[in-house]
Every structure is written in C-alpha cells, then in structure tokens.
Amino acid sequence: MGMLKEFKEFAVKGNVIDLAVAVIIGAAFGKIVASFVKDILMPPIGILLGGVNFQDLSLELKPEEVDAAGETIAAVTMNYGLFIQNIVDFVIVAFVIFLAIKGINSTKKKEEEKPAAPPAPPKSEVLLEEIRDLLKKD
C-alpha cells in the first residue's frame, strides 16, 4: 500500500499536473502551427518557387518493381521535402515560443522595476519608538 500512496502523492502534486497541462496544450499548439505552415504559409511559398510543393519533393533511390509473382514492390524514396517542411514548422514554432517568452520576461521585468515597499522596522525598534512617544507626552 505504501507505494500506491507515494504514487498518488506524486501524481497530484502541482508540478506534475502543471506539466501534464503544458504537454496537452503544447500538443494542441503544435497542431495549430503545423496546420498554419502547411495550409496557410507553404502554398504561397510554393507558388513563389514555381508551383513547388515541398511535401512532394523526393529522390527515388530504387524504382518501383514487379516481382516474379506479379506483386508490386514499392519504390524506395528519400523524402527530403517532408524534412524541409518539418524544419520550417520547427523554425516557426521556435520563433513563436521565443516571442511568447520574450513577452513574459518583459512583463516580469516591469514588475521587478516597481519599487518594493521598505521592510518593516524590527519589533524592538517599534517598541522603543512607542516608549519615546509616551515619554514625550508626559
């Protein structure tokens, strides 16, 4: 029973839950960015490059063949277009994350620039001031 209790304590800690939420949001964010790159950004870039679709770019290493039984053996290709697409996706995701972190850091920096309230004087000093004020009254 001890191991189950330890696991429960571990699983419900704030950091683990925060991490799980971050992973889920990150996966959804990745899908959005991938769709943005694939569906919005790459078509105009393909047109500018003469109608090239990066996902179709490949190098055929071994052509498609038909074996003795009449079965088709698929061609072996190096799909460097998909690799280029993934690099573009990564650069865009990295840039967006950079902008988000830069914004968060500038917000934190503004909060740090606000002057902090002066620390409260020690209790003994406060008591001495009260005694002084009482003696002045008499």
Q: SS-based structural class?
A: mainly alpha
Secondary structure: number of strands = 4
* Low-confidence region ranges: none
Distance between the termini: 70 Å
- What is the number of helical segments per DSSP (H or I, 4+ residues)? 4
- CATH domain class: Mainly Alpha
Any idea what the CATH architecture is? Orthogonal Bundle
**CATH-assigned homologous superfamily:** Large-conductance mechanosensitive channel, MscL, domain 1
Number of domains: 1
CATH topology: Non-ribosomal Peptide Synthetase Peptidyl Carrier Protein, Chain A
Estimate the mean pLDDT confidence: 83
What can you see in these coordinates?
This protein is mainly alpha-helical and 138 residues long. It has one domain (2-116): Large-conductance mechanosensitive channel, MscL, domain 1 (Non-ribosomal Peptide Synthetase Peptidyl Carrier Protein, Chain A), CATH 1.10.1200.120. It contains four helices and four strands; from the N terminus they run ααββββαα. The chain has helices spanning 2-11, 14-48, 80-113, 123-137, and strands at residues 59-62, 65-66, 72-73, 76-78. A two-stranded antiparallel sheet has the order 1-4. A two-stranded antiparallel ribbon has the order 2-3. A hairpin with a 5-residue loop joins strand 2 and strand 3. The longest helix has 35 residues, at 14-48. InterPro entries: Mechanosensitive_channel_CS, MS_channel, MSC/AndL, MscL_channel.
